[in-house]
Amino acid sequence: MDTLPRPLTALAAPDFAQVLDDLQLPVSQVATSPGEERSAPALLLGAPASSGSKLGRQVAELAAANLAPTGTLLLFLEGRRSQRELAAWRNGLWPLWHVSVIYTLSTAGTTRQTLAGSERLEGQAPKAHRVHSGSLFVARHRVHAMGPDVTREKFDANASGWNGDPGGPGYPHFRWMRRFVACFAPIAPGARLLDFGCGAGWCGIEAAKRYSAASLRFFDPSPEMVRIATSNAAAAGIEDALGRTGFGEAPPLPAADEEPFDAVISSGVVSFAPDPEAWLAGLAPCVARGGQLVIGDIMRESQGFGRRRREKPLLPARELNAASPADLRQGLEGLGFEHQKTAGYQLTRPFPEAMHLSETHLKGLLTYPLLWCNQIGAATGAVLGVPPLTRFDSWVMSFRRRD
Ligand SMILES: C[S@@+](CC[C@H](N)C(=O)[O-])C[C@H]1O[C@@H](n2cnc3c(N)ncnc32)[C@H](O)[C@@H]1O
Fold first, then answer.
1. Does a structural domain hold residue 391?
2. What's the CA-to-centroid distance between 169 and ligand 1, angstroms?
3. What is this structure's pTM?
4. Residue 318 alpha carbon, nearest atom of ligand 1
5. pLDDT (tens digit per residue) in 267-291
6. What is the pLDDT of residues 131-171, one digit of tens each?
7. How many domains does the chain have?
8. Are residues 260 and 306 in the same domain?
């Protein structure tokens, strides 16, 4: 780093010792000023209270040029900032950097905020907070934050959460979403079916049962997900079912001596791929010529997700990373797929909020009426194009691979 662009400021790492301690980052590993080594494990930069979020892009590029690929960017935004302003800074750092933690520093103490919630750090506020009150972003390279090790570890840890909670108020909605994708396009009876990024396996299981598939294969990066999907397929009575561990960019199926699959389903996966092109290149050869592909994911352009990006400083990386269905369609067409149909499903704001209220406070009272709205909305959207795709939080498309 040769010079710090104005109005960025160099800070003293020891002033942030409490936070660095919480991050288990030794002060000696934190670069703070121009001219320090170009592959530092961490870089601390300050933006004064007067600075606006337009600087975000500049900070992102500066940090990317100066930090090791696994490095941590610590960006201190001095002063009180609104949630919207913090969200705008986060948007400026993306897509180079993903913010996963925000510390709020004040004379009253220090709070750590992650997607899991907020926690106050133990101990009194350091004296330095009298000078440095504000928000400190902790960010990592997007590609690293979404890398294979992080993905595997995250989904292994949360695998049971992705299996749904039978009997819980959210379960009908959970299963409805999987069923919607699984049944979106008919699969020829007796097909060999692959679930690409299977999670707990429900999309593949629903499709295999509904369309009488001859066999079900599935894979996921998370060994725990594969274990749960295997157990779910057995419990669902699918006789020829087999799972493997692996990533879509280098799929472990079909095996070397196997033909590509007659039908492939992938639901809610591509938004986790740091490079969607590499992911699509892994997907395409898994589908036999003349075979069927059903792919679905979250709709980044929906009104609800747009609002979240404007208002929430912390968001899951996949929400920021999700590609548009139009871009993915273009990518697949370039790989020899013929588009059949597209639909939106899951109506956007205020439906997810209403569903949440129903599940958390109303013992599921509104769940079925809301699912009914979703069903009607998706059906009219698919047939008439009304409501438009941006009125949904998810999309699904079907394709045929050309002969
Ligand atoms: C949101 S869950 C969806 C699971 C399942 N398809 C469903 O609809 O319930 C996303 C899944 O994608 C997997 N995944 C993440 N990155 C992946 C990648 N690059 N290739 C294949 N699967 C991936 C995760 O391990 C996780 O199980």
1. no
2. 23
3. 0.93
4. 1
5. 999 999 999 999 999 999 999 999 9
6. 789 999 999 999 999 999 999 999 999 999 999 998 888 89
7. 2
8. yes
